[in-house]
Amino acid sequence: MTEPVLEILNLRKNFGALKATDDVSLTLMPGEIHALIGPNGAGKSTLIQQISGALTPTSGTIRFLGRDMAGMDMAARARAGLGRTFQISSIAPEFSALRNVILAVQARQGSSFRFFRPVARDRSLIEPAMVMLERVGLAARSRIPAGELSHGERRLLEIAIALSLEPKAFLFDEPMAGLGADGSKSLTALLSELRHVAPILLVEHDMDAVFALADRISVLVYGRIIATGTVEEIRSHPEVRRAYLGEGA
Amino acid sequence: MSIALLIEQLLNGLQLGVMLFLMAAGLTLIFGVMGLINLAHGSLFMIGAFACAAVAAATGSFWLGLAASLVAAAAAGALIEVVIVRRLYARDHLDQVLATFALILILSEGTRWLFGSFPLYLDIPSLLQGAVPLPGVGQYQLYRLVIIAVGMIVAAGLYLLIARTRLGMRIRAGESDREMIAALGVDISTLYTVVFALGAALAGLAGALVGALQSVQVGMGEPVLILAFVVIVIGGIGSIKGALFGAILVGIVDTMGRFLLPKLLALVLPATQSGAIGGAIASMLIYILMALILAFRPRGLFAAQA
Amino acid sequence: MSMSRETCINILLALLLLAVPVAAAELGEPFYVTLATRVAILALAAVGLNIALGLGGLVSFGHAAFFGIGGYVAGILASHAFEMSPLVFGIEGTTSMPVIWLTAIMIAGLVALPIGAISLRTTGVYFIMITLAFAQMIYYFAESWPTYGGADGLSIIMRNQFPGVNTARPLPYFLICYCLLIAGLGLYWLLQGSRFGLALQTARQNAIRLSSVGIAPFGIRLTAFVISAMVVGLAGALFADLNKFVSPSMLSWHMSGELIVLIILGGKGRLFGPVAGAAVYVLFEFALGGLTERWQFFLGLVLLGVVLFARGGLLGLLAGKARHD
Fold this sequence. Notes:
A: alpha/beta, Rossmann fold, six-stranded mixed beta sheet, globular
């Protein structure tokens, strides 16, 4: 039996009386895209923040590659192999797209305490960074300050950054949000390839993309997972249709 | 060392704490509502002291001077807010620090221009001169007791103002959600001017009250300003309750440290050294206290919810 | 291109700062040499602060602490050497500048380590106030500790020595300070372009981004804070030797404010911003200080104008917006 890459067990997060995460258990298996869907306010962001280390759970366990991640901060989780993107693109706006990726390459190499050698002439940083930019289709835009990139390009830049970390799992937080139909389509193709690099936990609103990509889907409603299954299972799941798709009982 | 002396020092610490509260309350209110760090708050303290001393000297009445200090500091605060400070709310803290640092230079040199470089002196009003007998202490200076009382009354008044009045409701709303309060049709820029002037008046009041205990001179606000920063960092920026607690803590720790440390060290060191070393350590004591508190509570003791 | 234009202006500034005192010395005007030395030393201090503030976005309002510590290291070592009395543990004083500099750099760094470690637990306005408070702590300690002059300060009877150079004369001492300024600028430039600099500048722009690639901002920022303090400490030692005097005023919060002012007048986060800022500041002090003793009033007005209306500082006006590649 294969071990899950990411395993969430009985996770709870309370804000006062509000149960933002209510006994969530979830696994991410090697090679799969596991989509997490749910209406607004279902607690998807809260869950993502707990996995990435921005929020501490009230109780429960998050295991990554068999290791309990409690007490690890965001940076430690990234070093452990969690590559993520953000719901609202998070980049260093003054730096070029290339520099943004170089940062990830140098982080991967574990070498940020080098004080003298100029990054601008360091081929061991620039070449792998350019490869990643090409892979997401941003090579031509490598010199543009990230703050001047379009919304969709920033999405791709974030994916290039996450890729450069050579992660053991991806955590993508609504990558399709705000993209046009064409953008969603090409990003869907890209994500489909990335599953061979590492499994993907995909939080997404775009149902076309989810149904096209996901091997399994979990449905989160009011902090609880009400169903997990294949695309077909979820499509036909009565509780999901009622609670999420809003169809009459 | 007698118990009486110890209680007297405790009261002195309380008086310092109350005075710090008057400064810190304005600072923390301005930060809480407008998100502004105001280095020039010490200059408003100085303006209050100068206004009081000048008017008292001209009219012979401390009470007129006291009224003048409130008016002058509030007016200066309102003017500064309208002309300069309101351009800074949307700026980062660095710009706020620099602009209000520039204001210190302008206000300090401006005051020196008006009043010259020599200190002014302000007498304690005859009504409040002398000492009163206190059980266990013997005689204690009446004026210092009055300062403590004034501080307590202001603290209670601020509490009522913020908890019970329409203005207070708007201040609380402004602290939690600036856009919401603007959307509700409250005139936000008037609110900001009022809050700034209120903070300025409190600083001016502190300056006038302290002016009778020490000389009134340019630069007198700066040590107080920095102590007030320590107070609000300890108490939690934006919290009036934290400002009160922090102010009294800092006032008492500072006063008692200076009083007790040389005496304690004298038990183990020769007299010539114990005074100097004790004094030097005592002067660092509140900063050490602050560092310790921050090591465990990085947002202060009564941190507002982020 | 604005990039090359800024480089031209930088070279021009560097040459001008060198040429003016050399010419002044030729013309027998040592006062101007001293003025230029003051510019070089203040610029070096501001370059040091710019590592934390410009690259790292750390608004430290307490760097006077390190400036003063450097000054006191020079003063204390020199006074012990002069009186031929040992310091603690039998360590001798010294009048050798290189030894003094190294000591100043080391001690400034050692003091910056715990101050930074505590202060960097906080951010924003807390960080500003806490660095200010720590500097005040050291200020009050220096003021109330009588051994080295307390509030009256400590005189350096004779300027300290540098092998093969007559440091008592203004021009050679200027040249020493100038070389160290250039070295400081070189350090800043190297750091800015290095891997460390990339991480540090990302911490300023977007700390979450830095964390999410696996680099913890705290260590990066603390390292920058300590390096920055070391450079400022060196400048402090030079400043004490320039004035042959050190007092708590070098530790005061006005000094911390002035260091920030130098950077902002010149242009934040730019290589030569501190140099331009220090030159403007010293010239302003000299020109207006001669006309009126209230020159700080006008400095305040200028500063207010720069903050409100000319946020790029002098280099921003001359060379346009700062660029990263």
